[in-house]
Amino acid sequence: MAGLLDKAKTASNDEPKSSKKPAPKAESETLLSKSKPVATTEAKGTQEGGPDIPLILNLSGWAIIVIGAILSLQGGGFGFVVVLVVLALGIGSIVQSQRMSGGVSQLKTGISVALALIIAVGPYAAIMIVPTNASMVISEVSVNEDENELSFVVRGSTSSVDAKIFADSQEVWDGTKSLSNDRARFYVPLDSIFVGNSLDYSASVIKQYSIEVESSDGQTSSIDIDTGFLTREAKNSAVSIFKIVKTTNQGSGATSVTDGISIDAAVGLFSPSEQALDDGEHTLENTALLPVASDYTFKIIIKKGLSVVYSMPQISVNGLSATWSSP
């Protein structure tokens, strides 16, 4: 009995020693293992929540390079040194963004610098290399028959232009205008520049009219005027006469009588070899006639010997349209 009690005492004394010692160690290990990842997570979240400086620098660098391209497009308006300074700032921002991202890649930096040079300096170089008259254009050359004037438009990046019109090498008109929104329209009276037809009856050019303009900064441009616009003098005319026959039936048979005549008139340019024939005919065919767009009038009269026996109303031509009043 005493032996059993001694064993029981010994067992009870041993149990607390083994259960108390590992408990603090387990609690300490649990707290440490939990506290380490929490501290790391908090620091990482703070870093992710801040601004992305490398990305901002990269975007700013490219924005500066685009500004350099806009400046270089102005050509002489901004010096080449200014464009280079802007370009250097842009490239510097791009390189700095790469350093902050974890290192500078020579290949990536080289490609970025090459693209930046092309974007920023390319337009400036193009303006310097391409002839200056390529940036000024003459267009919309037209004739207003109602107003009897020639008009044309000059476009370009300049403040004003001097315009001249030539008939071959002879100057026949000049004028000056300021440009608004890189555009100016000139109006020129036709009678102030016309000194002879541009085409002959065979449609060959015998006088070339042209427009030349020069800007206030020395740019020049020229264009030939459409030959049809300034072929305005009708030099030839022809008529063909046809009988108007009236036929009636009177029981005993048909009777035909001449009821009048029809006259076809042709006015314009045609070969001097064309001529009138007997019986009112003419050698001229429509395909051989070169029409003339101009303002003129003409009248057809019928004579018997030296006496006028019939006079038709006056015919007025405006451009290629003819009008007359019936008698």
What's the arrangement of strands in the largest beta sheet?
4-3-6-7
Q: What is the CATH class of the largest domain? A: Mainly Beta
The first-to-last residue Cα distance is 165 Å
Question: What is the count of DSSP helices, taking H or I runs of 4+ residues?
Answer: 5
What radius of gyration results from the CA coordinates?
48 Å
Shape: elongated
Count of DSSP strands: 14
Task: Classify the helix fraction into a percent range.
Answer: 25-40%
What would CATH call the architecture of the largest domain? Sandwich
Strand content: 25-35%
Poorly predicted runs are: 17-21, 26-47
Mean pLDDT: 78
The oligomeric state is single chain
- State the secondary-structure class: alpha+beta
Topology pattern, helix = H, strand = E? HHHHHEEEEEEEEEEEEEE
Q: In CATH terms, what is the fold-level topology of the largest domain?
A: Immunoglobulin-like
Largest sheet: 4 strands, antiparallel
What's the structural domain tally? 3
Descriptive report:
This protein is an alpha+beta fold. It has 3 domains: 53-129; 133-224, Immunoglobulin-like (Sandwich), CATH 2.60.40.2550; 236-323, no CATH class. Helix content is 35%, strand content 32%. The chain has helices spanning 2-20, 22-49, 53-73, 80-100, 106-129, and strands spanning 136-144, 149-156, 160-167, 170-178, 183-189, 209-215, 220-224, 236-249, 254-268, 294-298, 301-304, 307-311, 315-319, 321-323. It has a 4-stranded antiparallel sheet, with no helix packed on it. A 3-stranded antiparallel sheet has the order 1-2-5, with no helix packed on it. Strands 10-13-14 form a 3-stranded antiparallel sheet, with no helix packed on it. The longest helix is centred in the first third of the chain and has 28 residues, at 22-49. It is elongated, with a radius of gyration of 48 Å. The protein starts with a helix and ends with a strand.
